[in-house]
Amino acid sequence: MIILDHTAVIALCRGHRLLSGLAVVEVDDPLQRAHVPALCLFAASMELPGAAAHTGALPGLEFLPLDFAGAAAVEQATVAGVDWRHAHAVYASAAGQGEGQVLTATPEAYDGTGVWAVDIGKP
Fold first, then answer.
1. pLDDT tens digits, residue range 73-106?
2. What is the pTM of this model?
3. Which residue from 7, 29, 46, 55 has the highest number of Cβ atoms inside 10 Å of its Cβ?
């Protein structure tokens, strides 16, 4: 599963070519689409107002809600020192089907989390 964290959402909104390609191609299988965790979308919108509306209009993305199990896991991750803006992406990469890859402009934020962080460059 491909997961976009808040830095990737910001880069997408600013026209990142690779991410734009992922976001505009509608794939029939939701598991083949890029996924945006709800807290990552919120964090991106806090840094770049309008990011949620822009991202929500793109056909190639799936949005991951934060249910009770997710909220509990995010809480545990943040208590353990993971920044809240990254914690939902950490949970999503572990909870998804198969190994999740988090696309990010800050791969160092995932050090020690066991997450496969893919550096997209600076937004």
1. 999 999 999 999 999 999 999 886 567 899 999 9
2. 0.91
3. 7
The contacts of residue 72 (CB under 8 Å, 6+ apart) are none
Burial 47-61 (b: 16+ CB within 10 A, else e): ebeebbebbeebebb
Of the candidates 102, 9, 94, 92, the residue with the CA atom closest to the CA atom of residue 47: 9
In single-letter form, the type of residue at position 43 comes to: A
Q: Which residue has tokens 């806090």?
A: 46
Residues 6+ apart with CB under 8 A from 32: none
CB-based contacts of 95: which residues, under 8 Å, 6+ apart?
69, 70, 73
| Residue 63, beta-bridge partner list | 36
